Amino acid sequence: MIGSLLIAIVLLGGTLLGYFGLLPAFLLENDWSMWALFLLLFSVGISVGSDKELAGKLRNQSPVLLLIPLVTIIGTLLGVLMVSPFVNGRSIADCMAVGSGFAYYSLSSILITGYKGTDLGVVALMSNIIREVVVLVLTPLLVRYFGKLAPICCAGATSMDSTLPVIIKSTGPEFVIIALIHGIMVDFSVPFLVGFFCTI
Q1: Which spans in 104-200 are helix H?
Q2: What is the crossing angle of helices 164-171 and 176-198, to 10°?
Q3: Alpha carbons 135 and 4: distance in angstroms, whole number
Q4: Are 180 and 164 in contact, with CB atoms under 8 Å apart?
Q5: By the 8 A CB rule, do 79 and 102 touch?
Q6: Which residues of 126-151 are buried (b: 16+ CB within 10 A; e: fewer)?
Q7: What is the pLDDT of residue 2?
Q8: Which SS3 state, helix, strand or coil, does residue 86 take?
Q9: pLDDT, tens digit, for every residue of 114-161?
């Protein structure tokens, strides 16, 4: 829980520094966040590589776990479908398009902006960022109350990159492969599903 609180504090601190223009220009002109992500993934790789029992742990996992991406996609879309009648001024298709971002905010918000305009694009951006932040901050609680697969499903497409270190810290290195496969498969579904719901 302390780790999640630190993540929230660091995120808020970065947001405030950026908002008030207190950061040096060279930090804003270069994509340092990508390098930070690479460093995090490298650290996860070291952790996985140093676990001598990982192969045995993977063999004990059921092949049914490969269906997790499908469960994530269906579960998200069903959730959006149930909530969409309460969203004023937007069609069910618009809501489904936003939900189909699966936390892949950079791609989904651009696609939705192109199809539906800036307003819905911003909604998609914020919705998907919130989904990612929830996983970054609440992963220990998700694991405690809903099991080790919960943060992977909640993370959507980000389970293969930005949320992976936090997920692995709470679930263990045996979930690395599951999280990576999940992220890749959900990631590939985003352009197809967003495009589909934006055009109906």
Answers
A1: 105-116, 118-146, 150-155, 164-171, 176-198
A2: 140
A3: 9
A4: yes
A5: no
A6: ebbeebbebbbbbbbebbeeeebbbb
A7: 63
A8: helix
A9: 999 989 998 998 899 899 989 998 999 999 999 999 999 999 999 988
Cα-Cα-Cα-Cα torsion 45, 187, 146, 2, nearest 10 degrees, comes to: 50
- Asked if 158 contacts 166 with a C-beta cutoff of 8 angstroms, the reply is no
Q: Cβ-count burial of 27 within 10 angstroms (0-12 exposed, 13-18 middle, 19+ buried)?
A: exposed
Residue whose structure tokens are 């790789």:
45
Report residues of the chain scoring pLDDT below 50: none
Question: CA 114 to CA 198: how far, in whole Å?
Answer: 10
Phi, psi of 99 (to 5 degrees): -65, -30
Calpha distance 140→79 (Å, rounded)? 23
Task: Give the relative orientation of helices 164-171 and 2-19 as an angle to the nearest 10 degrees.
Answer: 170
Alpha helix locations (H) across 20-117? 25-29, 32-49, 54-59, 68-83, 92-99, 105-116
Contact at 8 Å (CB) between 99 and 77? yes
Pair of tokens at residue 127 = 């919705």
Residue type, 19: Y
- Asked whether the beta carbons of 156 and 104 are under 8 A apart, the reply is yes
Nearest CA to 154 among 141, 135, 138, 181?
135
C-alpha separations of 148 from 2, 42, 65, 152 in Å: 19, 22, 12, 8
